[in-house]
Amino acid sequence: MKSFYITTTLPYVNAEPHIGFAYEILVADVIARNRVGEEVFFNTGTDEHGQKIFNAAEKAGEKVELYVERYAKEFENLKNMLGLSDNLKFIRTTSEDHIKAAQELWARCKKNDDIYEKEFEGLYCVGCERFLAERDMIDGKCSIHQTEPQLLKERNWFFKFKKYEEKLLNYLKNPDVIIPEWRREEAINFVQEGLEDFSISREKRRLSWGVPVPGDDTQVMYVWFDALTSYISTLGWPEDKDGNFKKFWEEGHTLQLAGKDQVRFQSLMWQAMLMSAGIKNTNQVFYHGFINSGGHKMSKSLGNVISPQDMVKRYGVDGTRYLLLRHVHPTDDTDITLERLDEWYDAGLANGLGNLVSRVLTMADKYGVSTVNSSVGNVENNSIKKLDIQDYVNHIWELIQKVDKKIQDEEPYKKYKTDHDVAINIVSDLCTNLFEIAHLLVPIMPKTAGIIKNSLENLKKPENLFPRKD
RNA sequence: GCCGGUGUAGUUCAAUGGCAGAACAGAGGACUCAUAAGCCUCAAACAAUGGUCCGAUUCCAUUCACCGGCACCA
Fold first, then answer.
1. Which CATH superfamily is domain A337-458 in?
2. What is the pLDDT, as a whole number, of residue A449?
3. Which residue is nearest to nucleotide B35 (CA to C1')?
């Protein structure tokens, strides 16, 4: 049996789950559900180390361990909230196994002579508790605190990124490793402009909330070295007691999902780390766009935030899944507003799918259709495999439109008055069509698909699936 | 500044070197199984300028507008 690995990025737990991540994990969920006949490992989790989280916890007046615990739960709740697959694996970067894995990866990179110590001199802002870059300063002062930063020296561990330029370019030659194509070109550009080694640790006395660097108790790992490791620690690497790492990472097809701002991290740094440790590279990274609202990035101060919770509350689990999966552009940014969501909901779900189910089943029930042919012969569609979920959903809605038109053209409701058998035949045919639609709907709206199938089996009209909004 | 992208009906998107497709919203119509839903009909667009070409929305250049990236921020 073929094996397939899919993972989202791990969201940083310094805020509530936002719509962009909800979208990412929904896409992953659809892809995972669509891989029938394959063994699928579907991963997500939370990235819980680092300065920002430590600060956020402090600000909340909470112990950092409790703080991350609380947030991790919120993210785990998404599973229920968004109707995600049962077999979703959730990895936390503060879990013991993960910490060991991160340290082992470090050790392997070090053994391969890719990690070295270097004295680093920089301008440190006490207020920010970090070193400032050029653009963080105005007139030599911290742009946030308006104070002059101190010149500080710190010893950090660095990763030999530059060493991997050629190997990365080679990796990037394969057109499949990054979707969409222009992001791959972006990645190639980054490398061609030249890479610099990057620091992967921080002094513990400045930041204690991180994974201890093996063999150096004065330093902790910088978050991303730790966080990126989660893609394999979740599989049980390095011990691999259950054989998942071998089965899914080494022998399977690996697919990572990430936002468009992640190219450097996922397709370059992480890949270089894998190369250094002698581990197979990711087969494919799929970068999606961002979701904005009203022409702007969502932000609390603008008051234009639409959260996954808001959506589920208003449109239900499957309604939310439908709206995001059908209307968010796979790779470009998408602008959504409540008005638009309402329109999309009414058009696609109330007037479209919901109404069709209602009219077909009303007739089936009333006319006394006896059984429904529930074969799903030739309804194959491989758009999801090509990572084009929008196309897949659009295809389903074309079928819905076809069935609506068929009812109009064949007029079973009229024929019933003169010839019951003819009408019953037509409606029974319509039921088969509806069953096919329900079948295609499974990865997109699993619960609704189940209700429709069930209604067809019992030939009983279900509760109003999607009440109109206006 | 450098690199890349985008600009198509009111809105969101699609396709194409040779009549520009759709969905939603809008107008009208015949019907009634249905959630005043569905079906039919109608109206509606290639940012601007120049070039290549028999012919450009599509290729090239310029302008205007918008967006993204340019690393220690995850």
1. Isoleucyl-tRNA Synthetase; Domain 1 (1.10.730.10)
2. 95
3. A355
Q: Which nucleotide's C1' atom has the smallest distance to the CA of A403?
A: B38
d(CA A158, CA A148) in angstroms, rounded, equals: 27
Domain boundaries, chain A: 3-114+160-288, 337-458
| pLDDT confidence of residue A144 | 62
Q: Which nucleotides of strand B are protein-proximal, with an atom < 7 A from a CB?
A: 3-5, 11-14, 23-25, 31-40, 67-74
Whole-prediction pTM:
0.91
Contact between A171 and A281 (Cβ < 8 Å): yes
Q: Which nucleotide is nearest to A292 (CA to C1')?
A: B67
State the pLDDT confidence band at A96, using cuts at 50, 70 and 90.
very high
Whose C1' is closest to the CA of A413: which nucleotide?
B33
Just give the CATH number of A3-114+160-288: 3.40.50.620
Q: Round and report the angstrom distance from CA (A185) to C1' (B52).
A: 28
Q: Show the tokens assigned to A287.
A: 């970068």
Helix ranges (H only) for A164-245 are: 165-173, 181-192, 223-228, 230-233, 244
When computed from its CA atoms, the radius of gyration of chain A, rounded to whole angstroms, is 26
